[in-house]
Structure formats: C-alpha cells, structure tokens
Amino acid sequence: MEKANTNILLHVENLVKHFPITKGILLQKQVGAVHAVDGVSFDIYQGETLGLVGESGCGKSTTGRTILQLYRPTSGTVNFDGVDLVALKGEELRRMRRKMQMIFQDPYASLNPRMTVGEIVGEPLVVHRVANQKEIQERVSNLLEVVGLNAGFANRYPHEFSGGQRQRIGVARSLALQPSFIVCDEPISALDVSIQAQVVNLLEDLQNQFNLTYLFIAHDLSMVRHISDRVAVMYLGIIIELADRDTLYLNPLHPYTQALLSAVPIADPIADSKRKRVILQGDVPSPVNPPSGCRFRTRCPIAESLCAESQPEFRELKPGHFVACHFAERFV
Fold first, then answer.
1. 193-210 vs 163-175: helix axis angle to the nearest 10?
2. Which domain holds residue 51?
3. Three-state SS for 317?
4. pTM for the predicted model, two decimal places
5. Which of 257, 215, 285 is nearest to 10 (CA)?
6. Tally of domains in the chain
C-alpha cells in the first residue's frame, strides 16, 4: 500500500494529556497526574494509514481521543486540515467533528442497546441536522449495504448481532457524515480471529472507495503491517520510533521496537528457530512517575548513564525514519 499523496491532513505537535490525581472528598486537592500522553508529534498524510502500536497503557487510545478532542489536551496543537482543533470551542468544534470520526474498540459497549441499528447509524445525521427523515432512512440503508449488511437490519437491535456484525454497524455509523479522517481504536481486538481479517479488508475497501485517512491503533503487529503505510511505536506516553512499515519491520532502530517485533509469530518454523528473541526485564514503569531521561532506560539492554540524565531527541536518523534513542546509530 502506497501513500495517496504527500499533503499533510493532520499535524500533531508536542501533544500532552495529563489526568489529575486528586485527594479528598469535598475539597479535592490535586496530588499528582497520570502522564498518559507526554509530548507526541507526528503527521498523517491525506489518504494514508498510520499505525500506532505499543503495550497496553502506553497512551495509544488517549492519543486518538485527544486528537479528536474527546479529551481536551493539557497542551500542544492538533492541526487538522489547516485548522487548530485545540483553539476551537462550541459550534465551531461541532462543525469540524463532521470530518473526523472514531471506530471504538468494544462493539458491545459502543452501541446503545435501546436504539435500533437504523437509529444508531442515522444518529450523527440527526445530531448535525444535515438530512430530513426520508434522506436519513435512505442513507442508513445505503451505509448498511456498503459495510456488507442487509439494509433490512435497520429495524433490529444490537443484541441480535454477532461481534463482527456490531463492529460493521459501528463502521457504518462512522461513515454517516462522510468524514475524511477516522481514528480506528483497536477495532479488531475484541473480535474472533476469523472475523478480524474481514473487518480489516472492509476498512481497506472503504479507504479506497471514499479516500479515507486512518489512524489505526492496534496491538496486533502483523495486522498493523498489513494495513498501514507508516507505523509509529509508542512507549509510556511518547513515540519512540516512526518509519514506513517495511523499513520499521525489517530494520528497527530502537531497542524497544526490536523487542516488540521479536515477539511477532512467523509461519516459517525454520526461520523462527534462527531468529533472536529479545526478552525485556522488569515491568512498564508507572505513568504517574515516569523515569528521568529516556523512558525506556529501566528495561533497555543497552542503557548507559547518559540515558538517565537526558531525554533522547526524537530525530530523523534516516530519510523518513525517526527514532528517540541516544545510541540508535549502532543499529543503522
């Protein structure tokens, strides 16, 4: 899969999202903060898919929600299609939301059980007042068929569907307002393996059909390689490596990325037996009190005293290949 073009649709710069930790019942006093996202910068090009990977709790989903302003950022800028979303409020932000949508992780929790499928898919059109009742019904029927469901399902309720069908309903809802950018927040992790490929293929078909741009958040590194043009690797609130998918998977420059990729199962048992597994020591530090200097140094096999003293710059080591490691040149 190649990038459609080099027009930047989304520019995120030094994005920070901290969640306050408070103490007390009546007079709540802030005693700390969860550093969920701690200075993230990247671009997403028009028509491409940027994969965002990392361990649970590293801040992937928070990054996606903060970009869409579902969480308001602590600081930083999110420039979407030439507009700084952080500066928008009220009606201006509501109008911009038509161009940005989200597919949620849990197809069971993200659909209102008291609403019919037709009401769920058509709700964005009602909220934004962009169609009358007849147009909404026609649009809902069309959207259900686009995602591979029978238009007659519009009068049924979410509990009548399987997980894969529910996620297709969620995809149809995200397309209702004809957005240009969709955050896919682990859209396949709650589905059976046999269904995951179907949903990913659907997302690829829709991207080609409607010229969509995706931020694809996932744990499954094999699936991310399949669907993404470029891949960003996140660790404890920061991005530590970013490159096009083949470069990243064939020549990772950060020790954490190398460890992640060494755990990906491969189908060839002979090749699997020859490759070197990287086993990380210890656990991920708490985002409430992240380590000084390099976030990864407490588990890094090549860490030195410099790593505790200064945070490595997120720099472009090779064309299009960014990495945050003091000693990344060792792996070039």
1. 20
2. 8-24+31-331
3. strand
4. 0.91
5. 215
6. 1
| Residue 269 belongs to a domain | yes
pLDDT per residue over 178-205, tens digit each? 999 999 999 988 888 888 889 999 999 9
Is the distance from CB of 10 to CB of 181 less than 8 angstroms? yes
Cβ partners under 8 Å of residue 186, min gap 6: 60, 61, 105, 217, 218, 219
Give the three-class secondary structure for 226.
Answer: helix
CB atoms within 10 A of CB 247: 16
What is the SS3 assignment for 64?
Answer: helix
| Residue recorded with tokens 């491409």 | 48
CATH code of 174's domain: 3.40.50.300
Distance of alpha carbon 111 from alpha carbon 156, whole angstroms:
12
Shortest CA distance to 52 belongs to which of 319, 279, 241, 325? 241
Which residue(s) pair with 230 in the sheet?
Answer: 50, 244
Asked if residue 3 belongs to a domain, the reply is no
Whether 2 maps to a domain, the answer reads no
Contact predicate 128/115, CB 8 Å: no
User: pLDDT per residue over 103-162, tens digit each?
Assistant: 998 888 999 999 999 999 999 999 998 889 999 999 999 999 999 999 999 999 999 999
